[in-house]
Amino acid sequence: MTAKSTRRVARGPVRDEKAALEERLAERFVEIAELSRLLAETQQENRRLAAHIAWIHEVVPILRGGGGKLKFLNRRRDVGLLARLRKKRLFNADAYLAANPDVARAGVDPLQHYLAHGLSEGRSRG
């Protein structure tokens, strides 16, 4: 075997190894893309939850009404509490109804629905 033929033989395994490495690299790029997508989704969900928490921090003092205990909605206090929440502009009823057509069809008060159901269901305030 001559030196020239030895180089040709050696190049075959090198080419095969290079192709295998390129394939593995392409697989890693696919994995990185998927992980980046998952990270972006998680960050978006974290921002959404942070917005909910900030909103709750603004609403809780209103629901406490200056006292220590939370005043959960009932028929007698509904009007006053809902009016105070609306006055603070912490809720956009039109946006909520647009984002939740089932609530619009039901004809219920959007703020009351959000406090009673939408918040725990993870619905957007609009």
| Number of separate structural domains | 2
Overall pLDDT metric: 81
Tally of helical runs: 5
Strand-pairing-aware structural class: mainly alpha
- Helix and strand sequence: HHHHH
Strand share of the residues? under 5%
What is the share of helical residues? Answer: over 70%
Rg, rounded, reads: 30 Å
| Cα-to-Cα separation, first versus last residue | 77 Å
Query: What oligomeric assembly is this protein in?
Result: single chain
Largest sheet descriptor = none
Count of DSSP strands: 0
User: Low-confidence parts lasting 5 or more residues at pLDDT below 50?
Assistant: none
Morphology? elongated
Structural write-up:
The protein has 126 residues and is an all-alpha fold. It folds into two domains: 1-60; 72-126, no CATH class. Helix content is 77%, strand content 0%.
TL;DR?
By secondary structure, this protein is mainly α.
List its traits:
77% helix; mainly alpha; elongated; 126 residues; 2 domains
Task: Describe the secondary-structure layout.
Layout: H1 3-64, H2 78-87, H3 93-99, H4 101-106, H5 110-121
